[in-house]
Structure formats: structure tokens, C-alpha cells
Design goal:
12-stranded antiparallel sheet; about 35% strand; Jelly Rolls; mainly beta; 7-stranded antiparallel sheet; 2 domains; disordered N terminus; binds manganese (II) ion
Length: about 400
Amino acid sequence: MATMKRRSTAERPIPAFGNPDLPPQGAVNAANRASLTDPGPQNPAIGSQFASAQFPPATDVSDMPMFWASFNNAPKRVQNGGWARQVTQYDFAVAEEISGVDMRLTAGGVREMHWHLAAEWGYVSYGSCRVTVLDEMGRAYVADVKEGDIWYFPAGLPHSLQGLGPDGCEFLLCFDDGRATEYNTLLVTDWIAHTPPEILAANFGLPAATFADIPLNQLYIFQGEVPGPLEADRAAVAGAEGAPPYPFTFSLKQSKGCKQTKGGEVRVADSNNFHISKTIAAALVTLAPGALREMHWHPNGDEWQYWIKGHGRMTLFDAGPKAVTQDFHPGDIGYVKRAHGHYVQNVGDDELQFLEVFRSSYFADVSLTNWLTHTPPAMVARHLNIDEETIAKFPRGKPEIMPL
Ligand code: MN
Ligand code: MN
């Protein structure tokens, strides 16, 4: 690395930083401008979505496993009543801890009664939905959720989902296992259809003929009637066992775990405020145009992201050094391995919103600024070749989102 005579930080112009590592990499090195052209086959509609892959920032270096995926090109399984599409580790190799499903249910559309091995965390992105779940103590729970609300069903607990009026819902599901698939759930119709009639008769204490008309194939998603009032459903499922001790649903918009700055806000839901959510923690991040989700990392889990609105740009940093930048748009998925440094900038003209989802009971992040302002200034000054007076101007506390 070339040594540079220092002027005080304030009087120096912002340099066009090149990648300091060898071999030189990046468009900044292209003295022959033909190095930047791309005359071969291409699809501008897709290519234009990835400005920072086409022309990486000069500070990017080396490569990383692909950390961009999307629901936009995930095949839909369409049925009468809605559809589902998913991105699991089979599609997205880096995503070891969490898989994701995007599902639409019409008004009255039902996601069949089922259960599965993974815990399920849901986020409503549109409309409203009725959820039912039963815990292992026989305590039933029914609730209506709307845009911005979340739910959590612990592994193995049986549940159902149904779209409400006027236009049903769309929602995100996260499973706490990258290999969990939405098409490998245990369905009530499958089990009933694959149980001998005399066993059904014995199990339910009714004549075998009762089951003469059961569906022989799974329903999965089907069109039903819009359910009646919530209170009626609640009364219908109430039993001597009482209600579960903690709700299975939560309003992220009303979360008190919220940090706001001029640049935007971070709303957290984890087992501290959404007690049932023992294996998933999440943060809903909203950034104003130009704002930055600060340089940080997470000590306790991989970050799975769902991009809800706007245009964001994220750079990941790992040992090596490695630094790779990608662009994200609504319906996209991002993934950051535990402890990898990263930041997100809103590079669009509109509000940017995305979810950070973790396989953990709690949300945790380490802020670069917070670290540098809680280390003896002389130590930091020696590392960065920046004077202590300037270091004293770094933001205090943990900004989360800049500007403050
Ligand atoms: Mn489920
Ligand atoms: Mn993060």
C-alpha cells in the first residue's frame, strides 16, 4: 500500500478511493475504456436492476457466495384460493438458517390445516388474515392480523390461515431452517385420506360411513367462505384449558422496541416483547432516501432479509478481505452470514423498507461507530490515521440509522 503524506482530515478533498489491495480490481483501473463495455448477450430488464454488480464500487474486492435471491422469479404454485412460492436453501445455497415463502390467499381462501417440524414466523405484507393455532396443552388461539402484523407458530403446533375481506392477504413466511419447504408440511386431509376407514371410525367413535366423502387428494390451498366475526370463532374454540399464556400474533407497527432517527426507524420484535417467538427475532427497517443503515454486524445469527419497498444497496464485508455489493428491490431476498460486516443505503427516490430476520430468540447487532467510540481514542487514532479530535465527532451511542 502506498504511503501518503497526511493533511488534516478536514482540509483534504474526498478522494476517489481505489481498492487498496492487489491485484487491482474495479472500473477505476480501466485506463482503456473498452474494458467497461459489454458487447455480448444481455437482458437489460434484469441487468439494469443490478447497477452495483455491473459496475461494482471501487472498494469491492474478491467474491462471496451469492447473497441475493428473489421471490420475483420463484415459480408459483397456484390453486383456487391463492398461491405460494418459496426460496429455500435448495435454491439459495448461502441461506442455511432460514427459508422463505411468499403466499397469497383470496378473501375466504384457506391455507389448509397443517403442521410441520420447523417453527413458522409470518409477516403480513397486504390485506388481512385469520390465523388459528392450538398449543400442546390444548389451548386454542384465533386472531386476525393485518398489514405489518406478525405471527409465530412454534415447531410442530397445528395451524391454519385464511384470507379475510375485502381482498384477502399476502404474507411472508420464514421457517427457522433453510431446508424447510412449504411443500413438505403435514396436511390434515393427507392423513385422513391415508388412514383405513375402520381406524377413522375407532378414532372418532363414529360409523366408518361418516368418512365416505373425504377428499382423496390434499387441498393445500382452497377457496372457502369468508369467516364470520372473530369473537364467534373465539367462542367456538374456547375450552376448559383456557387461553395460551402468550399471544401467537404481534403488531410490529406498535412495537415499543423502536429506534428512530432523522434517517428512519428500526422496529424490533423478539422474545423480549413478542414472548412466544423463541427462535425468530426480526427488525423492520425503514430508511428515507439517501439514509444509511449503519455499518454493523450480528453476533448471534445469520440475517435473512425480505425487501418490501424501495431500492436498497448492500455491501457485505468478510475476512480476506472480501467486499461485495448488490442491489435489492421489492420481493427480493438478501442473506448475511453471522458476523459479516454490512450496511444498507437507500439509493432510490422513495422510502426503503426491509425486514431483517434471525434464527435467534433476540435481536442483537454490533455497531462499528459504537465500537470505535468506546475504544480508547489514541488506539482508534493509530488504526485509522485520523486525529483524536475528529474521532470525537463520530456519532455517539448506536445510531442504527444515519443521519441522526
Ligand atoms: Mn405452516
Ligand atoms: Mn444487519
